[in-house]
Structure to design on (141 residues):
């Protein structure tokens, strides 16, 4: 199954400062900004586009339960995850299971842009958090 780079997720402490950097220093465009208080997310997210490539800036909204807050406490701010788009997330999950790659079941969700996503278990990916995603509601012209 083909995997295509989709976006990079970056954990940040201060979303305003990070947006400022990505817009003014890197020349990006703010595509969207939203807050998700869903369990296991608890983050404010800013999507920055630079030359067709997206970066998600992720700031925790709850320093006790947000996985981004836990990530920053353990590893510091910086790259949180790398996301790869697949044609069909269900088929990709079956393929992963056959390969013995585990996923973090509680991360399966659909975001506000219709992207279905799940994180692979970092214990099986050499420590990198990898997201698989698809866009089942988005049709290409």
């Amino acid at each position: 199954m083909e995997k295509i780079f989709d976006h990079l997720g970056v954990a940040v402490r201060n979303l305003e400062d990070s947006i400022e950097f990505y817009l003014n220093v890197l020349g990006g465009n703010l595509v969207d900004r939203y807050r998700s208080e869903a369990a296991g997310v608890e983050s404010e997210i800013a999507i920055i586009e630079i030359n067709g490539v997206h970066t998600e800036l992720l700031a925790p909204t709850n320093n006790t339960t947000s996985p981004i807050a836990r990530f920053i406490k353990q590893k510091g701010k910086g790259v949180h995850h790398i996301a790869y788009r697949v044609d069909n997330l269900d088929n990709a999950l079956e393929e992963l299971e056959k390969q013995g790659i585990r996923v973090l079941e509680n991360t399966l969700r659909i975001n506000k842009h219709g992207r279905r996503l799940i994180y692979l278990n970092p214990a099986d990916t050499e420590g990198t958090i990898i997201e698989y995603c698809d866009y089942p509601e988005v049709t290409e012209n």
About this structure: The CA atoms of residues 114 and 135 lie 6 Å apart. Strands lie at 3-11, 29-36, 43-50, 53-60, 78-86, 103-110, 116-120, 130-134. The first helix runs from residue 15 to 24.
